Amino acid sequence: MMSFNFSNPTNLYFGSGSLNRLGSLKLPGKKALVLISNGKSTKANGYLDRTLAELKKAGAETVVFDKIMENPVKDVIMEGAAFARENDCDFIVALGGGAVIDASSAIAAMVTNQGDLWDYVFGGTGKCQPLSNTGLPIVAIATTSGTGSEMNGFGVISNLETKEKIGFGNPSLTPAIAIVDPELMQTVPAKYTAYQGFDALFHNTEVMMSKGINKLSETIALSAIESIAEYLPRAVKNGKDLEAREQIAYGSTMAGITMQLTSTTAQHSMEHSMSAYHHNLPHGAGLIMISKAFAEFFIEKHACDEQFIKMAKAMGIHQADKPEDFITALLQLQEACGVADLKMSDYGITIDEAMTLAKGARSMQGGLFEANPCEMTDEDCAGIFEKSYR
């Protein structure tokens, strides 16, 4: 519990109105590749124009690449890297949610390294080569609260050809500057506010379950869990509730730190397998679908009872004295956020895929299984999918 390593070079500007500080900051380059999603919201809400104006004020030139989708794919990463080289960009500004910031790490690496992204991916069909050159520096501007990617140099990328979704990154790709301005999050629709909020929650709950938990990661994770559990229903109900947005943003950004201190568990491996095979499945939705059965597996094994009790207390059951109280708190939060009725079948998943998904989870991100508080076999993993299926 008292042994850990923490190193983070990111200069974090957190709080409402913090985007307005960008123009006065010393940037890590002169010409920015500005990454945004392929949706309309970043432009329609004025966030892109505001960011471009701030970058101009800071003396930077810009070009915009607007092709990042919800689950970023390898081919678009390679296209973005080529676009950055063609335009002589020397740093990246990632303006968006987790997908955009995840993509920025991969694009930053591939601007300066030869070959294909999958040459440098560890896991699945990746060729596990080390990066030869340092990637472009990154400025991350978060417009959603879910991944905490603004605080680390890792992201998750899909390969449509191989039907894989695998983490990629390197500590050297950690953003030089991160701006987390909850004012930019007020326009996220209720459904996605819930999905993203639960992603942030599970980053922290998985850290709490992990056998690598330490005093610092536990302290931060419990603080984040408390904020998310109390304020996520408010943010879902009223997206303009700035206090709620601030609290959820805090929980998400803190997860970016807790995940550096302590690994998440196989719950994330399992969901990445689900959305690798069913690309239209939002990551947070998939996590919600399997969360109850995943936690119950460890409760039945008595693998980390005290951790579940601590989380239940942080989630509002102050008299919690048994691990099952965490399940009660979890289900209450899902009901309060309107996500208790999500179904795998609505996204094309069939129950006979359970073992395929289990094996995919281990193949793509088997390292996260090692963080589980007790052993989980492929059969156990398939059983969780089956138990979660609707």
From TrEMBL:
Alphabetized UniProt keyword annotations: Oxidoreductase
CDD domains referenced in this protein's UniProt entry, alphabetically: Fe-ADH-like
Domain Alcohol dehydrogenase iron-type/glycerol dehydrogenase GldA: 9-182
Lineage of origin: Bacteria, Bacillati, Bacillota, Erysipelotrichia, Erysipelotrichales
Record's keyword annotation contains Oxidoreductase: yes
Any GO molecular function: alcohol dehydrogenase (NAD+) activity
Domain Fe-containing alcohol dehydrogenase-like C-terminal, chain residue ranges per copy: 193-389
Superkingdom field: Bacteria
Name listed for the protein in its UniProt record: Iron-containing alcohol dehydrogenase
InterPro entries reported in the protein's UniProt record: ADH_Fe/GldA, ADH_Fe_C, Alcohol_dehydrogenase_Fe
Gene3D superfamilies associated with the record: 3.40.50.1970, Dehydroquinate synthase-like - alpha domain
